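Friendly challenge for the regulars: who can give me the structure tokens for this chain first? No prize, just bragging rights.
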Amino acid sequence: MIKAPPTPKGFRDIKPEMAKKRREAINIIVSVLEEYDFVPIETPTIEFAQTLEGKYGEEERLIYKFTDRGGRKLALRYDLTVPLARYVATYNPSLPFRRYQIGQVFRGENPQKGRFREFTQVDFDCVGSSDLDEDAKVVAVTIKCMRGLGFKDAIMLINDRANFSNLPIEAVRAIDKINKIGEEGVTAELVAGGMSQDQAQEAVEKIRSQNPTSNLEQIFSILKEDYNLQEGVDFKFDPTLARGLDYYTAAIFELKMDQNPTSLSVGAGGRYDNLIGMFSKKDIPAVGFSFGLDRLMDLLYP
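First reply, four minutes later:
Bragging rights claimed.
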């Protein structure tokens, strides 16, 4: 009997039963997005490598890069946000532009439970508005999608990158791991990065004691007054949330399945007011969010 060749590590086939369930989940999410005036676009799976380079900080090492037979340096898309920025710079759509995209992304990381090298993102963004109503809308739409999928305990953690304005980016990246490696692990990483033990402990304590910025207070107010969401149930402030990607500039979001800070994240996002300007040479603010569909499905059908 001839044995079929395997798929590469971190890549997989999806059988009809699960493919149907994935489509049902996508339909629920899309119905909410279109209710709030998000429209679909599609972008290529492959971009020029230079389009993606310099956007992801230390995560850039995970980009799949290659050279084609014409000598062009290409890459598989790492996410759907940078391609969106390139799309906006290319086509100059009317602003604000609210779009969603569902597609495969690729990251050369170590595969493990709930983490693959090829996976599906459901991404939605508002481009062209600095109004905090758009930040609140992104949070509210996310929570409505989760409730529609049956996740009654899901909660959005929210912070502001302004709370890290006096820290080097290396320290921000370390603090973003606090729920995974604990305060001692973060302190050790900061010390390894050049801080003294006292400086590292002081940085962690300072972050722990931060309060919501005025921007966050406004977002929280909109969420409660306009969307009837409850602080502490649907969303809450988390001063240790940092989001490691370099392009975030203000409010940042991370979706958890429950109140346990160590529970798996199934989505993240935030405001990135400078990214599109890297391509368009214009100041174009933006805010968005991305679901990891594969993690959602693992939780829906364990």
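The chain has ten helices and eleven strands. The mean pLDDT is 91. Your move, everyone else.
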